């Protein structure tokens, strides 16, 4: 039982490049989330999903897209990376309205 | 909109003593959840404790307890018998009714002194 995993762990992009972050959970959770954490701040919600095939915008969705084609996977895409997207990205999943289970994070640097 | 405020950027506590980390929240929802997470220097987010808005008793999990005062909209975390391993960033968070989305505070850095 791996819990929530994120791929990759680190990535450096140049401005304008694109990439996809993969989040996978093996706990059969309905809800999945993508957050970003900037220095000195708490996590902010980018996008979330309440079930397979559904997605919704969070607090800071601009510049990101997501897809949830399979229940266990939640993908976060950056079509044209900008330095302002330099951050640590966390994926999380939850079964109900209780606690969310977080992945280890992906550290992304955009130069 | 929901908002979480953590007014203590940093705290120090002596090993084996108790410490309280403050959290106040603002919401117009009647039903909501309150959470505390720990983030050590390694970066992972570790769930500590949960309090539902309709729970009559304060939540406790081992050395962690949540002092929930609904009228004051506060949800302070109390750590008893602090250990060196408690040194970390602590985040208070609130969940919404739909989708269980979390809103986080800015965090409090706790340093435990030996």
Structural write-up:
The complex is a heterodimer of chains A (111) and B (114). In chain A, a hairpin with a 5-residue loop joins strand 7 and strand 8. The mean pLDDT of chain A is 94. Chain A is 0% helix and 50% strand. Chain A is mainly β and 111 residues long. Chain A contains no helices and eleven strands. In chain A, strands 2, 4, 5, 6, 9, 10 and 11 form a seven-stranded mixed β-sheet that branches. By secondary structure, chain B is mostly beta strands. Chain B is 0% helix and 52% strand. Chain B has no helices and twelve strands. In chain B, the strands form three sheets. In chain B, strands 2, 5, 6, 10, 11 and 12 form a six-stranded mixed β-sheet that branches. In chain B, strand 8 and strand 9 form a beta hairpin. The N and C termini of chain B lie far apart (41 Å). At the A-B interface, strand 4, strand 5, strand 9 and strand 10 of A face strand 5, strand 10 and strand 11 of B.
Q: Could you write a compact summary of the structure shown?
A:
The complex is a heterodimer of chains A (111) and B (114). Helix content of chain A is 0%, strand content 50%.
